[in-house]
């Protein structure tokens, strides 16, 4: 149970109820971080607009690279909500979910390519406190992904650090997206 209660639809204003309906249509359930953010309407709207903009703009990298980096941050920081939601997103993208079980052994696992390993190491370096990003890492990512790809990857990892830390701090845990208990989002 979150440390700050969810705003139920019955107590939400008209705009928030509309946002809840749109979210439920897209994901099969109202996202709990959204229902906590609803306590601060302006931040809820700002966050929603930003998330939609990033979703539309982050198209340089292949989905497998984007989602792997985001998933790694979620597992590294221990956000069960982000792991749950991220797994559902990867399932809906048709990505290989079996390899996620091996992410902690990515250096030795045949499930990960050289690029995957580079992306995971970069996500780890950005997520560590203090950060351990090196000039060599960024140069290699730029060489492999292009400048726009390296910028997109960095932005997505930073954004997932924000999401994960928000959810973890407020006690928002797995919502059941991968078990089917909460989410009825159809496979595309």
UniProtKB/TrEMBL annotation:
Signal peptide: none annotated. Residues 58-103 form the Carboxymuconolactone decarboxylase-like domain. Pfam families: CMD. InterPro entries: AhpD-like, CMD-like. PANTHER family: 4-CARBOXYMUCONOLACTONE DECARBOXYLASE FAMILY PROTEIN (AFU_ORTHOLOGUE AFUA_6G11590), CARBOXYMUCONOLACTONE DECARBOXYLASE-LIKE DOMAIN-CONTAINING PROTEIN. This is Carboxymuconolactone decarboxylase family protein. It comes from Saccharopolyspora cebuensis. The lineage of its organism: Bacteria, Bacillati, Actinomycetota, Actinomycetes, Pseudonocardiales.
């Amino acid at each position: 149970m979150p440390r700050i209660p969810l705003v139920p639809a019955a107590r939400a204003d008209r705009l928030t109820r509309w946002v809840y309906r749109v979210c439920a249509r897209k994901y099969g359930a109202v996202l709990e971080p959204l229902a906590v953010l609803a306590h601060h309407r302006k931040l809820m709207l700002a966050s929603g607009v930003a998330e939609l903009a990033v979703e539309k703009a982050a198209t340089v990298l292949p989905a497998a690279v984007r989602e792997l980096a985001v998933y790694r941050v979620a597992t590294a920081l221990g956000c069960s909500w982000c792991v749950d939601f991220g797994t559902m997103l990867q399932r809906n993208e048709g990505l290989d979910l079996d390899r996620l079980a091996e992410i902690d052994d990515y250096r030795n696992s045949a499930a990960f390519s050289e690029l995957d390993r580079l992306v995971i190491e970069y996500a780890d370096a950005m997520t560590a406190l203090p950060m351990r990003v090196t000039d060599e890492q960024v140069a290699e990512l730029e060489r492999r992904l292009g400048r726009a790809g390296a910028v997109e990857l960095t932005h997505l990892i930073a954004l997932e650090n924000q999401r994960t830390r928000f959810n973890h701090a407020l006690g928002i845990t797995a919502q059941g997206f991968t078990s089917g208990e909460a989410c009825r989002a159809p496979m595309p």
